């Protein structure tokens, strides 16, 4: 290849590229009003949609695992009497981290959440809340879901669903607005809830913390009582002094579990940062929605303009 050819080839590509961009700009400029109309329409729809969305408030609490004062006593017995203790349902190797992980999973479970919804009677505020009136601190309900005048559910659904939402629907909705996670580095637990009412969001976070502590406390007390019953029966039947001594120690540790449960309200989770009623909304991101509408309208307008040009060019060539 000659030097002249080596120089002219990239020059030709540059000129061709500039020509193609100029042609593209000319095509879009000729149909600029189509692009403007599409962009204005798309952006206007995005603005109207963002304004129709209610403000959502997020309340969050920061928790720490409650200390396990009885853990040292159980650990001391684990090496020698773990097998005997397991027969009585006593887990000598249970660590605080394991109990916290279990509590987090219980907190996310269907049974716990459905019981929580029924216990505190929050189905209406969960499934029908549309917005929040700041001046009266009242929740406004979606009239297509619940009639305040008739005091009944009026939503239109297909079987097997009913006008009144089922607990399965309520569970899914509650999981959608709730977040529970543990920081891997610090071990801190964060529980948050989003709701149109900031006060409801705060109240539900507080109730969640209270209920999960009570649930885990009740679980451990029931297990400790069953273990004590079994161990007491074994003490009454055995005649070997050393085994009786071990059994008495196990009973003592289970009695400590019950004692700590009775005196501590924050049984599994200890509140570090309490939930508050947020003053600022966490959503929706109206500016982002409007920006998306503008970008979508621009791309759609360009696509329509180019499509019209190529269709007309194809028809012209065919004729």
From TrEMBL:
It is found in: Cell membrane. It is a multi-pass membrane protein. Coiled coil: none annotated. Its main location: membrane. Residues 18-119 form the Polysaccharide chain length determinant N-terminal domain. The chain crosses the membrane at residues 33-51, 287-311. Pfam families: Wzz. Keywords: Cell membrane, Membrane, Transmembrane, Transmembrane helix. InterPro entries: Bact_polysacc_biosynth/exp (IPR050445), LPS_length_determ_N (IPR003856). It comes from the Bacteria. PANTHER family: FERRIC ENTEROBACTIN TRANSPORT PROTEIN FEPE, TYROSINE-PROTEIN KINASE. This is LPS biosynthesis protein. It comes from Pseudoalteromonas gelatinilytica. The lineage of its organism: Bacteria, Pseudomonadati, Pseudomonadota, Gammaproteobacteria, Alteromonadales.
């Amino acid at each position: 290849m000659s030097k002249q050819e080596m120089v002219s080839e990239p020059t030709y590509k540059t000129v061709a590229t500039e020509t193609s961009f100029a042609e593209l700009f000319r095509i879009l400029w000729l149909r600029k009003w189509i692009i403007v109309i599409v962009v204005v329409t798309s952006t206007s729809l995005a603005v109207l949609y963002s304004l129709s969305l209610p403000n959502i408030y997020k309340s969050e609490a920061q928790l720490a695992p409650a200390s396990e004062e009885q853990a040292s006593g159980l650990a001391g017995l684990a090496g020698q009497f773990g097998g005997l203790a397991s027969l009585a349902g006593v887990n000598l190797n249970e660590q605080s981290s394991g109990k916290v992980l279990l509590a987090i999973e219980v907190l996310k479970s269907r049974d716990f959440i459905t019981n929580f919804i029924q216990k505190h009677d929050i189905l209406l505020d969960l499934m029908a809340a549309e917005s929040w009136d700041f001046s009266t601190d009242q929740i406004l309900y979606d009239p297509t879901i619940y009639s305040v005048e008739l005091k009944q559910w009026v939503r239109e659904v297909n079987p097997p669903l009913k006008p009144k939402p089922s607990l399965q629907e309520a569970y899914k909705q509650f999981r959608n607005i709730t977040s529970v996670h543990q920081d891997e580095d610090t071990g801190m637990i964060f529980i948050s809830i989003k709701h149109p009412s900031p006060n409801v969001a705060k109240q539900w976070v507080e109730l969640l913390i209270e209920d999960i502590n009570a649930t885990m406390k009740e679980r451990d007390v029931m297990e400790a009582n069953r273990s004590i019953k079994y161990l007491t029966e074994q003490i009454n039947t055995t005649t070997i002094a050393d085994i009786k001594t071990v059994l008495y120690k196990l009973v003592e540790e289970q009695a400590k579990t019950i004692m700590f449960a009775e005196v501590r309200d924050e049984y599994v989770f200890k509140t570090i940062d309490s939930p508050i009623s947020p003053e600022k909304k966490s959503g929706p991101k109206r500016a982002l929605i409007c920006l998306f509408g503008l970008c979508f309208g621009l791309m759609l307008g360009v696509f329509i303009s180019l499509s019209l040009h190529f269709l007309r060019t194809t028809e012209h060539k065919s004729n």
